[in-house]
Amino acid sequence: MRDQIPLGRNRGRSSANKQEDRKELVEKLNLKNGMDFDRMFTSEMDSKHDNTIDKLERALKTFQGKDVANYISTQLPHLKRHREVAVSVERSRSGQSTPTLPR
């Protein structure tokens, strides 16, 4: 999402803390191979997608600015679809049945 609006940029953890978290994740992923890597990566991305979707849905209810609300409304379906595809791929890799994804 290149056209992201920096929503709540100064809320919560600092950029330095988030960078450190990313660095730690990369280091952990570098220790994994094959399916162990896939499982850990997918789990992390699942969690990040859920967190982002949740934040945007909450923001949509609280932001007063029309432009921000419109932006969130247009981006949420794309983010949800992206997450659905990622979950579908992981399920197919693990042998679970894959649901038909909406278009």
Low-confidence stretches: 1-5
Helix content: over 70%
**Rg over CA atoms:** 16 Å
- Count the strands? 0
Question: DSSP helix count?
Answer: 3
Q: Termini, distance in Å?
A: 19 Å
Kindly report the average pLDDT value.
Answer: 81
Percent of residues in beta strands: under 5%
- The helix-and-strand class reads mainly alpha
What's the story with the biggest beta sheet? none
* Net shape: flat
Provide the succession of SSEs: HHH
Please give the oligomerization state of what you see. Answer: single chain
Question: What does this entry look like structurally?
Answer:
- This protein has 103 residues and is an all-alpha fold.
- The chain has a domain at 35-93.
- It is built from three helices and no strands.
- Helix 2 runs antiparallel to helix 3 (66-93).
- The longest helix is centred in the middle third of the chain and has 29 residues, at 34-62.
Question: Which short descriptors sum up this protein?
Answer:
about 100 residues; mainly alpha; disordered N terminus
List strands and helices in order, with pairings:
Layout lengths: L14 H16 L3 H29 L3 H28 L10
Short recap of the structure:
The chain is mostly helical.
